[in-house]
């Protein structure tokens, strides 16, 4: 558990670092940052409330609140009006989660309405990702290496959120649960991407060394969905891997 706490602080520091670089980034990088933030916000909300992990850790709440603020700022700076409108809906759904218990003491006093208050968050996030993916496909200034790194990061973000949904009991989000075959296929795509990208040159291999290790550490849990859930640990390690790949896209395409 000490290792997970260390990674949690590292994850928070990395999130804090990204905005400083984003002002120099292309629109492709800005949209990618929004995609990653979307996965991070939604995953951290689920981790915060998930009774199968260590619920109500304040750092997870701070992470999703800070992520929402950054998302709204980026959407405004990129003048993505449709994204801003969806973020307003997402913000409203996030605010509504205040109706859920916010501590284990409160949890023992009531039966939480996870389906009522968390499904709107997942639904809005799904629409947000569709919009951001559409905007990403329309841009023409992304380099091939940058696009490949962004695709790898997005695949990990989807696995990150998929695990959080699957590990959350009484959520009622079956339509968003990834099938065993989908997890296998996406995992293979991630492994192939790490191998292919790392073979390009030593600089890329060096940048991907840490996220590759973090992903490898989480793989066993991705496939072990038999009740021994580790939402906090998987969230930290996959979240770190996703954001470090985004950082590599910035550093390697300067």
Multimer state = single chain
User: Structural class given helices, strands, pairing?
Assistant: mainly alpha
Global Rg = 17 Å
Helical coverage, percent range: over 70%
Main sheet overview: none
Classify the beta-strand content into a percent band: under 5%
Element-level helix/strand string: HHHHHHHHHH
Distance between the termini: 37 Å
Tally the beta strands.
Answer: 0
Tally of distinct domains: 1
Mean pLDDT: 90
Helical stretch tally: 10
Describe the global form: globular
Low-confidence stretches: 1-26
Keywords: Signal
Explain this structure.
With 254 residues, this protein is mainly alpha-helical. It has one domain (25-253). It has helices at residues 2-22, 27-49, 58-77, 81-96, 104-109, 114-138, 144-166, 180-198, 202-223, 231-252. The longest helix has 25 residues, at 114-138. It is globular. It starts with a helix and ends with a helix. Keywords: Signal. Residues 1-22 form the signal peptide.
List keywords for this structure.
78% helix, disordered N terminus, mainly alpha, globular
Topology readout:
Blueprint: H1 2-22, H2 27-49, H3 58-77, H4 81-96, H5 104-109, H6 114-138, H7 144-166, H8 180-198, H9 202-223, H10 231-252
In short:
With about 250 residues, this protein is mainly α.
